[in-house]
Amino acid sequence: MMKIVIVDDDRAAADALAQKLSTFDETQLCGIALNGMDGLRLVNETRPDVLFLDIELPDISGIEFLERANILPQYKCRTVMYTAHDRFMLSAFRNKAFDYLMKPIDDTELRNIIRRVCIEMAGIPDADYTSAAHQPTDTSSPTADFGDYNALDADNGITCRNDGKFIVYTNSVDFRLVDIREIGVLTYNRELRLWEMTLSNQKAPIRLKRNVGSDALLSLNNQLVRVSQKHIINLGYLMEVTNNTCRFYPPFDKVEDVKVGRLFRKKLIDQFCNL
């Protein structure tokens, strides 16, 4: 059974999360705390497997809470930071949060987090888990903890999460989470000398860091394929190629300027047929 504690000064939000968690047979709610100090006491008493922590608390910040919780002796809790303010995301991960959840809570996102915890709990015996918290994380392993600081090095420009999502950096500090299903087209901006990512839920493309090259983008997922020097597309949205131009399913059906280069046509057809 997965023991869970919620720390949030918004009682209505905490109750709403508790209600969503109650739909999972694997979970057991150990308690709700409405401030940081009560939350620390509750965590120390119950030693939950997962802590859902709001970042903005009335007495101490969620980040400070996380720092204190991480030094509890012989204990490591998987902390999921949840808030409506994504500007806190980088600090949360640097302090080794297990994951991050935006308010209002999306059921699919919550389900993915619970699944990740179940997989981790099943794969590491309880006796080994505490000692593993004091060992360096191997970021080359597919089971590497997403909260590992080195795995979130902004110099990489773009980083894969364990659940298949990407952390996309737009500068040395700011970044956002992107799912492969959100990506339609990647376009190289020759004037700015960088790649831009067109997403389903955002009007303006995201400008990536200049050190992110086409090889790094293509390695993210086999759905991404290069069709010209200027464009990389998500094959999941490709409907047809007519007059050497890619036509896409909604929400990318308005994109009409993606041409297929002669040198890239065969590889596009091969990958499209192998989906």
From TrEMBL:
Keyword tRNA-binding in record: no
Example GO BP: regulation of DNA-templated transcription
Residue span, Response regulatory domain: 3-118
Keywords: DNA-binding, Phosphoprotein
Source organism superkingdom: Bacteria
InterPro entries: CheY-like_superfamily, Sig_transdc_resp-reg_receiver, WalR-like
GO cellular component: cytosol; protein-DNA complex
PROSITE patterns assigned to the protein according to its UniProt record, in alphabetical order: RESPONSE_REGULATORY
SMART domains given in the database record: REC
Modified residues (4-aspartylphosphate): D54
GO MF terms, alphabetically ordered: phosphorelay response regulator activity; transcription cis-regulatory region binding
Pfam families: Response_reg
PANTHER family named in the record: REGULATOR OF RPOS, RESPONSE REGULATOR RECEIVER
Protein name according to UniProt: Response regulator receiver domain protein
Species of provenance: Leyella stercorea DSM 18206
